[in-house]
UniProtKB/TrEMBL annotation:
The keyword Signal applies. Residues 1-18 form the signal peptide. Keywords: Signal. This is Lipoprotein. It comes from the Bacteria. PROSITE patterns: PROKAR_LIPOPROTEIN (PS51257).
Amino acid sequence: MVKTNRITSILMAGCACAALSACGADDIASPGEGTIVLPAPTPTPTPGTPTPTPGVVTPAANCPSIAGSDQLTDLGTISNGTSTWRNCGFPARFNSSTAIAKVAGVIYSMPGRVDVGTDQGAASTNTAVTLSIDPGVVIFAGTGNTFLAVNRGNKINAVGTASQPIIFTSRENVLGTATDQSSGQWGGVVLLGRAKITDCLAPAAAAGTTACERDTEGASNALYGGANDADSSGRMSYVQIRYSGFVLSGSSELQGLTPSGVGTGTQLDHIQVHNSSDDGIEIFGGSVHPRYLVLTGNEDDNLDTDVGFRGTVQYLLSVQREGNNIGDSFLETDSNGGSASNNGEDVLPRQYLKVANFTAINRSTTGSNGSAMLLRGGADLTLVNGLIVSPTQTCLRIDSATTVRDADTALQDAGKPRYISVSMQCLPATPYKGNNGVTAAVVQSIFEAGPNSTISYTPSLTSLFINGATETARPATDPKTIDAAFTTTNYVGAVKDSNDTWYAGWTCNSVTASFGSASGNCTAIPTT
C-alpha cells in the first residue's frame, strides 16, 4: 500500500522532468575491411520505394480497423528521433469485443482512463466484452490519471510470447526520455472481478457477499467484489508493465498491476512490473493464483495483498532498484482491523497468502515498513522454498497478536505463520521485529519453528538471482504438500540453476537487474 512519506520523494524525483509533464546489454557492430562490392539488389526495389533500415521503424500509413463500433483514432505519429510510429488511440471505452493486432509501424495509446466494457455488477454471471491483444503489441499512456480498467463481467486476453511480450508503458518511454530511475508516469492495469472481498464500501454489507464491493484505490466507479471465487477476468501472460503508479487522491495510488476481487478463473503468469512508483502488484481480495512474476525497481512493496485475498503465488523474483535506496518491503500482507462489522481482523474471508519458490533481493534501508517482509492484522501466511537477501535491513516484522495466535477453524485462522525451507540473510543486529503485542522474540521463535529454515544464509547466487552451490544444497519442500494449486519443485528460490531460464526474453533489462541478451532494455521500445 502507498506510504505517505514517499509521496514527497516521488514529487522531488519528478521535478527534473517537469518540462515533460512527467514524474517520475549488448552487441556493437564493427566495420569490415577490404574491397567493397555492391551487388545488384535481387529483386531490384521498385523505384521510389525506400529500403527499410534495420532496427528503425517507419510509420504505417494509417491505423487498422478493429471489430465493433468503437474504432481507433489516428493521432498522427510519435517518434523517439530514430523510429517513428503511427499513434493509434484507444477509445475511452470498448463496448464490444475486439482484438488489437500487432501491425508494423503502429503503436497504440491510451489518452486517459480506458474501460473494457461496463460494470456488470457483483451478482452477474455473464461476460459482456473481451479485449484481446496480440503478441508484440506496445500500448503507451499519457501522463496522469491514465489506466486500463477491465470492469466486472468483462475480460482481457493479453497473451504475448517469450520473444514477443505485450508492453504497457509510458509516453516518455516511447519518446526515449525514460531512464532507469523513471517511475510514476501513468496509472497501470486494473482488473475488476466478482470474487469475495472484505472491507466493503457499505458499512452494513456482509463481507464475501454480492453486497460487498469496493472502489479501486480512490478511482471513480471502478468497482470490484462479489461472491464468485471462480470468476474470470481473462488472461494476461508474457506482459511487461513499465513506469506506472499514479496518485489518485490522498494516500491512494495505482500500482503496476491491480487485481481486485479477481477469481481463480483468471490466469496471470509471466508478468514483469518495472519501476512502479507504488507497489509492483497489489491484490485486493479474490483468489487468483499468479505464476512467474518478475518485480523490479518498484518504489513501495513489490507484492502487497489485502482485504481477504486467499490465493497462491509461485515463481516470484523480486529485486529492489539499484543505486537510489528505493523501495519498501518484498511482501506486505495486510488485514488491518477497522471499526465496521465487515472490516475487522476476524472478518471472513480471512486473508491467507501462500508463496512458493521465491527470491527477494532487498537493497533499500529507508522503507517505512522497516523490513523485507511485513505481516499484520488478521492475516495468515505460508512461505515455502524461499530466499531472502536483505543484509542491511530487518528480514521479518509481524504486527498484531491476531497474526500469531493458534489455529481456529471457525475464524478460518490457519494459526501462526509458517516459514518452510526459507533461507534469510538479514541485518545482524535486528533480523526480527514485532509490534502491537508481538515481540521480536516471538517473531524469531515462529520463524525458527519452520522446518529447513535458517537465518544463517550466505548467498552464492550468480547473475544476481540464479541459484549457486549454497542454494542448491539447501533442502527443499514439495509445495504441493502445502497447497494443491502449487506445482511440485525440489529446489529453493525462484531460479533453480543456469539452465532454468523462465524469465528470459519476455522481460526487460535495467540497472536493477539484467535477464540476459534475449531481453531488451526497459528504456527502449522494440523495433521488430
